[in-house]
Structures are given as C-alpha cells and as structure tokens.
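User: Hey, my collaborator sent me this sequence without any context and asked if I could get a structure. I don't really work with proteins. Can you help?
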Amino acid sequence: MNAPAQAARVYDAVILGGALSGAATAILLLREQPGLRVLIVEKSAAFTRRVGEATVEVSGYFLSRVLGLTQHLNQAHLVKQGMRFWFFNGQTKSLADCSEIGGRYLARVPAYQVDRAVLDEEVLRRACSLGVELWRPASAGRIQLIAGGLQTVEIHWQTQTELVQARWVVDASGVAALIARQEGWWQPNTAHPTTAVWARWTGVKDWDGVELAERFPDWAMACHGIRATATNHFTGDGWWAWCIPLRGGDVSVGVVFDQRRVRWPEGGSAGDRLKGFLLQHPVAREILADAKWREGDVHWRKNLPYCSTRFAGDGFALVGDASAFLDPLYSPGMDWIAFTASAAAELILRQQRGEDMAAAVEKHNREFTRSYQRWFTALYRDKYEYLGEYDLLRLAFLLDLGLYYFGVASQPFKHGKKALCRPVFAAPVSTPFFQLMRAYNGRFARIARTRRRRRRLGRQNAGRRFMFQGYTFAPSSVTPIFKALAGWFRLELTEGWRSWWPRPVAANQPETLLIAVREATPQR
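Assistant: No problem. I've predicted the 3D structure and written it out in structure-token form, which is a compact way to encode the shape of the chain:
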C-alpha cells in the first residue's frame, strides 16, 4: 500500500487496531455515514491466532445480523453447540464416570466457534471495502486528546513518523489499551487474580467418534446432539479449562486458574506443563491422550481482568479489550465487543449529527462502568470457589444462562441492533436481577468454602449427568429458572445453614490455600 498523501492527514475518525472491535466500529460508522473519513492503524502485517474463539448469543447476533457475516461464519468457522462442563473426583477413573452438564439436543440460537485470525481479516477486509484507509503495519505513539477538538496521534509508518488529526480516536488496541494506560485510567482487577495458559493442539480425540461410542455406549447415547463442537469445560477446584474446535482440525485448549487456589507446575516446557496439568482430569486425559500442542503456539497471560476508569470522552472512545476484560468463562469477550463498538459508533454519529455531547458522554461512561462492575460481581467474583462442584455449578449454570437469555440475549432479537448500544446491567430495571445473581453466586461460593473446610468437596462429581433441553426466548423456557431457584432453597435448608453465620479467620491465615497440582483431586 502506498504512503498516504499529506493532504489526507485529517480524518473524522482514527481507529487504533484493525481486528474485530476496530474494524467493526468502522463498518458501523460507514454504513450510517458513507462519507466519513476513517483511518485504521493496525500494527500487525497479518493477524495471528489468539484466545477468544467462542461466541455466545449476543455476539452471534452482532456478527451475523449486524455485520452480515452469516455466510462467512458458516463457511470458515463452526456452529457452536452450547457449553458442556465435566467434573471429577477420586472415584472417577474414566470419561464415562465423570459428572456432566450439557445440552441433550442441538443449540437453538446461533453461536459460533471462530478462528479469530480468519475472522479478524474478514471483518477488516469488509471495512476497507466500505472506504476505510488502512495503514499496516503501523503503530501508534503519543496520543493528544482535546475535548471537543481535533485529536492528534503520532503514527510510526513505513520507517517514518506521521502526525494525523481526527475529530475522534477509537482505541481498539486490545490488551495494549493504549489510551487507558497513557492517561492512567487502566486498573487491574485485583479481586479476581486469574491466569490463563493455552495452546492450539492437533490429534485431539473425536468426542462423537466411533471409538468412544463403542467403549462408552451409555455415555454416547445420553447426548442426542454433538459434543465435539460445544465449548467443553474441564473443571477442578479453583480452575477450569476450555476445549474449542476450529475449522481445519486444530483445537484450542487452555486453562484458567485462580492464583489464590492453584499453583502452576514448574519445570519443563510450557506445553509439557499445560498438558501435565490437564491430564489430572479423566475427561481431558481421554480426549488429549495422543494430542500434541503446536510448537511456538503456547501462550501465558497473568492477571487477566482489568478495566479503564473512563470509556469515552468528547473525542475518544475505548472499545473491546482496550476498555476492559473480565473472564473467559461463558465467553463474554465478544459480547463486550458488540456492546462497546455499537455504543462508540453511536456516540460518534451523535456528534456528527450535531447533538450535545456532554450528556451522551456522561451516560456512556456511567453505563459501561456500572456494567463492568455489576457483570463481574454478579457472575465472576469468587466463582472459582465452586467451579469444580457439580451440584453448585448446575444450579448456577441454569440461573446464569437463563437470566442471560431472557435479560440480555433476547433484547437484540426482539428490539434490533439498537439494543446493543446499552450494555448488560445498564438499565435501572436490571438492578433486581443483579442483586439476585450476586446473592446466589455469593452463597454458592460460601457453601463451597464450608465444604472445603469439612473435606467434602466433589462428592457429586461422579456418575451424574444433567442433559439440559435448552433455553429459547419463549416464556415457557423460564421454568428451569424457577426450578433452579427452588433447588437453591433446598440447598440452603439441607447444607447452606452451615455457612449462614460468618466464621472467624485467624490472623495471617487466609481461608483459601494454594493447591499444588498433585493435590488438586477433590476429596471423596
């Protein structure tokens, strides 16, 4: 690509990052106002694979019905068949012994297992076809923000430094979070100290193949759908792992663990340590027995969650991982892209229409700050305390997924793409649901701590199979939510009462202890 002409150095918007969040924001802008001058600055010459291969219902809607990628998704990626969870304890010796949570039939609302490198290139290509100017590879340096004026960005491009100006700068730089770090807004979420280790694998066994069906016929017949293209989760005390297939045969497998509960093994290569950790789980041991990780494709990221204290101003907006990151459980990352990109594009278009920006910016920051805080508190705070407990996670799964379906995922399907401009928990009407989710999540975590002290973890992790019929947006699908609430009530009466009163903790003796890999098998 030729170097830009000097006369083209003032833009309506400069987007820092050309992957999904940045390219999608550009598409949303140019579809509404084709005459906008938009520059994308992308640091990579070609996208590489990255964590974040699974979508859920909101991001599935965003990719297919907003960005118009349905044909591409069906041709280049895989249709996702929901989520499955696998549990183990000292009694589980084989895959069929492990307790399981998952759908009995195929998924009813579309979601996808995507190769992010392929997807990002396609979305960027479509943005360029709408008239985006692309500088690649190029990197951003100092960014000067002026509220209500022209923003200035220093860009290193083709062995020289260019200064460009734009009414808006959109930070889509991912975990680099260029603006948030530069301005001192970036904050780690120290209440959730998690680490992820992942790789792409070959030779992963076919979940739905003849071999496993012949060895474990009852296990195979329990599921009438497809296990292999679900997001399969191996769970343990303080950790979980994902197993996500990609078109072409590779499989993404990785572990996320709470640093307060799990000590990662030392010695050997990163791939050896990852596989060694996974093989403590009988299901992973079966599926990954002959699998090999791809050399040079093992990754590690410590202290995953963070958030910017500001999401937008009159002249800038943060989208995707450049604004915040929560946790990969339940695959919320691309939902967050859908919300932040949609809201950022709407903010820019408001200014282009001549609307007052002060109130719009204040609302944007208030809603996304609230969304992050409540989303974390309701779903993820202390969840790693009970991720490895079949009965507790079964109740949480029904409640989390059901409330997501009716309160979040249903909204764009019922009201269209404008619903994506307001993130989760932004509306005041969502407050009672936030309080409910915070309550049961906190109670399940406390019950798990009580079990740990009594050495009774994982007692239901063997021989149980919950095959879920699946949620829809129909009112009749609300029944499992009420059944789960009733199950929570019974749990409180039969066991939860043990943790109704705070237990004193000795000074300098934390309630949670590190668990080495060799000690990670739950108690019988």
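In plain terms: Residues 1-5, 506-524 have pLDDT under 50 and may be disordered. You can pass these tokens on to your collaborator as they are.
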